[in-house]
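Field reference: sequence -> structure
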Amino acid sequence: MEEKKSYKVYKIIMIIMLTAFITFMITTIVSYNYLIKGDGKILLLGGSSETEDISTRLSKYKAIIDEYYLGDVDEEKLEEGAIKGYIEGLEDPYTEYISKEEMQEYMQDTMGNYVGIGIYMVLDSETGKITVLAPMKGSPAEEAGLKSGDIILEVDGKTYTEDEMSIMSNKIKGEEGTKVKLKILRGTETLEFEIERKNIKVNPVEGKVLENNIGYIQFSSFDETTAEDFKAKYQELESKGIKSLIIDLRNNGGGLVDQATDIADLVIEKGKDLLYEVNKDGQEQVVKSELDPIINMPIVILVNENTASASEILAGALKDYEKATIVGTTTYGKGVIQQILTLNDGSGLKITTEEYQTPNHNKIHEVGIEPNVKVELPEELQEQVTIPEDKDTQLQKAIEILN
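Structure field:
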């Protein structure tokens, strides 16, 4: 009996020791990352990836690179690549890291002047391809024959991914008088263009008087002077006796939100809500009209599938208050707002911070603004930037409404 009892105690002790050993091994495996070399050698990095912060994890990879990597190491490029990769992990096409070198050019674009070929680009959410939204009127791109919907395959012989749109954009820019080569996919046809870069005024506000005293104002983006330029152009046309107004926002890719609300402020009564900005916590910030309106006449706004962002804010506000009739096709549906933040080292982050909604709390993002009167352009004219007035079915419908 004593022997049986001793054996039982021994068995229990062995089970406890074995359990402790297995627990130790499992803990060790879970608590370590490892890297397998080509010859099967395992390098223990130490620590649990679930509990470490990113700086600790990157320092381990840096140690491996320093010890094992065969080539030369550019620390600055490694750091920049790590930051870009971290930001790209958000999978938001509108949030992007901007290097110190790119920031100056980026801000020049926002201010309304830059040296380039004059195109607006967009990432097509369905295809993942970087696409020409529209060439700017009178730009080298328009003169060379680039069209809305052209897919950019290569810039100077190099391809770019959907995450590298800013890099591609900066490669298209350059010194005035130099040339850039683009390979374009248009439908099933591959085309090549060599275009000279020029100093371009991004956003001239243009206007004229049409038949029956109808004013017409067109501009292709919202930069820091657009609202002021729009007001001046309207007052010029008003002095010529216009009785109604067409605002052409077709192929307008957007820009500065405050410029859109400043234009809406010229039409909508003082104290009215122009825009709701909703942040990640659901908190709303309301932009209200601050001025007495100066435009008191019938308005038609022309839109199409390339009308985006700030253009949709303007169209949505005037539609909600029934201050304008929207004519054309459903707009692009870019209803999120980005801020540009400058870091101490001169680099920047363009980051999506809010979603905007129209005065009636209508969502715009991935929905767009529905026209009051839907009118398609003839299929043969849909890819053209400059369309003869008599063949422009959308413009002719606007004139018909105002008459």
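Note: The chain is about 30% helix and 25% strand.
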